[in-house]
Amino acid sequence: MIDARLMAPLRRLGWGLTLIFIDIRFGTIDILPDFIGCLMAASALGTLASSHKSFGKARAAAYIQALLSLPDLVLKSDTLTGFASVPLGMHLYGQGLTLLHTLMAYWLFQGFLALAKEAGAVELAGTIAGRGKLYLACSVLQLLAYPYLLNFNDQGWMVAFGAFVVFLLLLELLLLRIPFRLAKLPPREEEEKGRIIDWKA
Amino acid sequence: MNTRNRLLAGIIAVLIAGSWIGNVLYYRSGQLREPLFMNHEIMTTTQGSIIDLYYLENKSTGKKVTAIQIEALPSLRFELTEWQSFSHQKFMHAFGYAESDLQPGKYTEATVYYNEGPPKKVPIGIIEVEDGEGDGNGALNFYSSGGGSDGSGFISGRLRRDSVVEEVSTSIGDNYKPLLTYELKATMPGAGELVPIQLPERVPQGASLRVDYQWHEQDPAAGIPTVFRPWMTIRSQASDGTERIDKNLIQFNLYLTEAQVRALVKREANP
């Protein structure tokens, strides 16, 4: 069972992550800008931060990501096509955002895991722990491998990396489903709320 | 975060930073300071309409060529297209076609316009434009020529009259002569097979002559590669005693490898 007051922010967090995930552009203009998703997530994390300090760290990462993703509104985001023609600064910028997103995801997984455990959702906690490890391992691998593409960017490597990025997007989908699943846990009864306050303290 | 996780995070941070630093340093060492023109040895005639130039330029950083002009050959227009692609550079083909007759002469510089900064006169080797159509007072009806991407090629023709074929030569500069080997062959009338012939050799009217040639690889570490478009000349004496010259331009394609491009970039950085 989960504190009913956390359900709305969990859903808002889920929608925020969804907005970050979806990238629809007209030309170079992003019509679903990441910073709106980041601000939604940060706002939700503000409420969730009272339940677990990891959410507070994730909120800080979300705010920084919102700020840094502003130029992405008008920048062409697809660096994988014509990779070698993309200026070095753009690669660094893109990977800086990815690093920040990975840090946010790390703290989110910690917070989600704590919530699931406290709610007694053992199976969900196990799922979160497994997905978290896989997500973080793959994200770190991506962060490590990406700079090598600067020097080894023939078609074979680019196709392999592109396939890996598609896999990472699937993991991202699994991440953003977690807050929705947590929000679906049975709400904690009214009389138990006192205990929740103790727990938060 | 416990000590084990901190240690792991520290190791990951060091690895990511190391990966970036190492790759960025290697990336920077693989960039040209500015577009690099190949050396050219191009022969043509006033009515020859095609002159091809080649150059390397970075894919990402630095100046890009936007236009090329040879001031003394104003009728020559260049179209820039990608010929080969490498990790950091594009090997570009400037396909030049003349809209009217070219002025005879030797030309060694091109004015190159860039996307940033002023235009610059760049040495390109030599373009030699000769008077006339270039096929000389030949003894042969040239009917075919061809070439492959492996550097092989041929020219062939049929003798108009009985002749003594005396010499096959090329216009390639002495320094580069070892880069091209060739062999003259002939099919005598009634015979089906091409056989190599030793010069001088009397060859009857109607016989087919064929020169098979092979370009050999250049070592870019030894200097900027040269793009050739040379004359191949067959000198013969007709039965009436007159000297006959058959001139044909032969094909050449320059294909570079990643390692060769790397060597060229290194050479440009430390000439």
Core attributes:
heterodimer; A: 201 residues; mainly alpha; two-stranded antiparallel ribbon; 7 helices; 2 strands; globular; B: 271 residues; mainly beta; Immunoglobulin-like; 5-stranded mixed beta sheet; 5-stranded antiparallel beta sheet
Topology:
The complex is a heterodimer of chains A (201) and B (271).
Chain A: H1 7-21, E1 25-26, E2 29-30, H2 34-48, H3 53-68, H4 88-118, H5 122-149, H6 155-183, H7 193-200
Antiparallel strand pairs in A: 1-2
Helix pairs in contact in A: 1-2, 1-6, 2-3, 3-4, 4-5, 4-6, 5-6
Chain B: H1 3-29, E1 36-37, E2 39-45, E3 50-58, E4 65-69, E5 76-85, E6 89-98, E7 105-114, E8 120-130, E9 140-147, E10 152-159, E11 163-170, E12 180-187, E13 195-196, E14 201-203, E15 208-215, E16 226-229, E17 231-238, E18 243-249, H2 258-269
Parallel strand pairs in B: 2-8, 2-16
Antiparallel strand pairs in B: 1-3, 3-6, 4-7, 5-6, 7-8, 9-10, 10-15, 11-14, 11-17, 12-13, 12-15, 17-18
Characterise the protein shown here.
The complex is a heterodimer of chains A (about 200) and B (about 270). Chain A is mostly helical and about 200 residues long. Helix content of chain A is about 70%, strand content about 0%. Chain A has one domain (about 5-190). Chain A is built from 7 helices and 2 strands. Chain A has a two-stranded antiparallel sheet. Chain B has about 270 residues and is mainly beta. Chain B is elongated. Chain B starts with a helix and ends with a helix. The mean pLDDT of chain B is about 90. Chains A and B meet through α4 and α5 of A and α1 of B.
Summarize this, please?
Chain A is mostly helical.
Q: What percent of the residues of chain B sit in helical stretches (DSSP H or I)?
A: 10-25%
Tally the beta strands of chain B. Answer: 18
Write the CATH fold name of the largest domain in chain B.
Immunoglobulin-like
CATH class of the largest domain in chain B: Mainly Beta
Unreliable residue stretches of chain A: 191-201
Number of separate helices of chain A:
7
User: SSE string of chain B, helix = H, strand = E?
Assistant: HEEEEEEEEEEEEEEEEEEH
Report mean pLDDT of chain A, rounded to a whole number: 86
Note the overall shape of chain B. Answer: elongated
**Hey, roughly how much beta strand do the residues of chain B contain?**
over 45%
Main-sheet strand order of chain A equals 1-2
Biggest β-sheet description of chain A:
2 strands, antiparallel
Rg result of chain A? 18 Å
* Share of residues in strands of chain A: under 5%
Q: Biggest interface and which pair forms it?
A: A-B, 19 and 16 residues
